[in-house]
Amino acid sequence: MSVVDIWNRHDTLSFEVFPPKTDVGMADLCGRGGVLEQLYPLLPDNISCTYSVGGTDAGKNLEVLDKVVSDGKTAAMTHFTCAGNTRQSAAAQLRTCLEHGINHVLALRGDLPAGWADTGSDLQCAGDLVALIRQEFGDRFTIAVAGAPEGHPGSRSLETDIDALKRKQDSGADYIITQPCWDMDAFRYWLDAIRAAGIRLPVDVSVMPVLDQAETISAALSRGGFAIPKSLCGILSENWILPNPFTKDTFDADAERKRADFKKAGLEYTVNQIHEYRRCGAGGIHLLTRNRFEDAALIVRESGLLKELKVEN
Ligand code: FAD
Fold first, then answer.
1. 58 CB less than 6 Å from ligand 1?
2. Angstrom distances, CA of residue 24 to CA of 14, 19, 34, 49, 249
3. pTM of whole model > 0.70?
4. CB-based contacts of 191: which residues, under 8 Å, 6+ apart?
């Protein structure tokens, strides 16, 4: 997708997958009839693959994206972090991406592993990485950057975080993909605030499916942490599995029914949120698939994303 396409687009859909640690996981994702091949008929504009700081899964990340490129059904986007890379190593790896046909990048600082005080790099923040990519590769990459509607946990205030986002725009980013944000008031406030600060980039919203109680709570606590609004707390507590949804040894006779009821209510919640993001002016939906086709398909189908994309095409 060209930059012009990105600016003109609306209602786009992308999927995020992660590089599995095991050969079985890789076969499930990249093998014949695997998750990637199942995702293509949902017509994503791109499929992105995460990348761990330190590059431990960099080889697998490239293997996953090679599969997306060679299948030729959609664009491949690599997540890429400045943490753990120098300017030189970042440029070398990104050149390799181009050689492999990967010309979409989500330029990130990266989640710092425990004990790291900074990026350990001559690239201190995502804005530095964006500037490097433009300097080294001109317009050969389409560059997305991260946005944090609830503010990045490391920033002094929402305003300073928005300043940092503005710098990413000024360095040459093409669009924003947000952290998940279930708090719609926070999302609307942030969207107004970035526009008031002069950030004109299209915004895609990360959607974390709410289909399982334990995963929903874990998701809120990971990825920098995001709030669980009262409405979602209500769905969680109405279907609370005793003693808690994390234990395998539940003594709750109603556990199965509660799981099913939570999934039904969570799906409705997720679909409503997708409609609300789009009403607010989000340009696209970036669905965190957790390498599961069924959940992704359910959400795409129920939210009408597939039908509308087919009409556009
Ligand atoms: P930055 O934009 O560099 O911001 C980091 C912090 O520094 C913020 O507090 C910001 O306000 C501040 N800051 C930035 N620039 C400046 C400046 N010039 N002066 C002062 N302060 C500044 N992480 C991974 O490791 N691997 C992944 O695959 C991955 N995928 C992600 C996918 C999505 C869709 C999103 C939204 C995030 C993802 N992350 C991933 C997480 C991301 O790396 C973390 O949120 C990380 O902590 C910050 O990354 P960033 O790109 O927002 O950093």
1. no
2. 24, 12, 11, 17, 27
3. yes
4. 149, 203, 280, 281, 282
Residue 152 corresponds to which tokens in the numbers above? Answer: 């990045």
- Which atom of ligand 1 is found nearest the CA of 110? 43
146 in contact with ligand 1, CB cutoff 6 A: yes
What pLDDT, in 10s, does the model give residues 240-297? 999 999 998 889 999 999 999 999 999 999 999 999 999 998 989 999 999 999 999 9
* Ligand 1 pocket: which of 64, 105, 152 to mutate (most atoms within 8 A of CB): 152
Ligand 1 atom closest to residue 125's alpha carbon, by position in its atom list: 3
Element (H, E) at 188: helix 184-196
**Closest among 50, 169, 63, 62 to 110, alpha carbons compared:** 50
- Residue 50 Cα to ligand 1 midpoint, Å, equals 13
Q: Which atom of ligand 1 is nearest to the CA of 163?
A: 11
Q: Which residues contact 6 (CB under 8 A, 6 or more apart)?
A: 142, 174, 175, 202
Q: Hey, CA dihedral for 89, 59, 141, 274, is it positive or negative?
A: negative
- Locate the ligand 1 atom nearest the alpha carbon of residue 107 and give its number: 51
